[in-house]
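Amino acids appear as letters; backbone shape is given numerically. Here is one record.
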Amino acid sequence: MYKALKKDLKKIRESVNIRVDRFLPRKDEYPKNIHKAIRHSLFAGGKGIRSYMLIKIYSIFCEDVEPIMPLAVAFEMLHTYTLIHDDLPYLDNDDFRRGKPTCHKLFGEDVALLGGDTLLIYAFDIISQMEVADKVKAEILQKFSAMAGARGLIGGQWEDVNCEGKTVDKQKLAYIHSKKTAEFIKLTATLACLLAEASEEDTELLEEYAGNIGLGFQIVDDILDIEGTFQERGKSIGKDLESKKITYPALYGLQESKDEVEKLMMRAKEILDKFHDKGLMLQRFTDYIYLSKW
């Protein structure tokens, strides 16, 4: 079942990477260290889940995916920026990402910090160049900014670090997982539907789908920090426990965390049933995220 999915994931990832490569300055262009660092992080072997979801949701409504490709590149730029910064010693302090040395381990903390900043700026640069109506572009930029800022992604990252070693309630955990991961992934559906001019009903359904995938993905990551291997995660195991992070298993226990992921995935698949064959690959993708992990 996963053979066709993996082929599709690879095809889209390569297509997005080609466009990333075209946009980036050459690695030997001044300042060389910055460009080498961002290329190392962007092409380190990630699955491209956010750009994949963006493209596949858009393709439910539109056969030609070329109009959304710049936005897929922007998602990869923004996501990689978060990883570079998240790995720094004063945040999660990780030496490995996707099975390779993290950006700051290879290039230094100063280059990693500035390289992440560069990718954040590039993400908005790409969106500004999209060939869409000004009103649509403005809406994309507004939603992208809101998700990435202190009321979104940065807020979630801060609370994740700030709550280490503290006793927090379920509401705070929900906030962290929503802002840090789920809302970022949910935005793939919001913007794909916006560009595809999908109906309000379809947009709401697919936003729920993507939000479930985002939360499920984060809970799976929490579980794998306990039960996974370095080969599966491509990064250190046991970091959450070592840092005394607040996670789903820490607050709910392992079995209840797994049960919650299953509920989220079942609802996600139920939503996709409405779109019949056009949602088939996303159905397989949903199974893959859950079933391939344990």
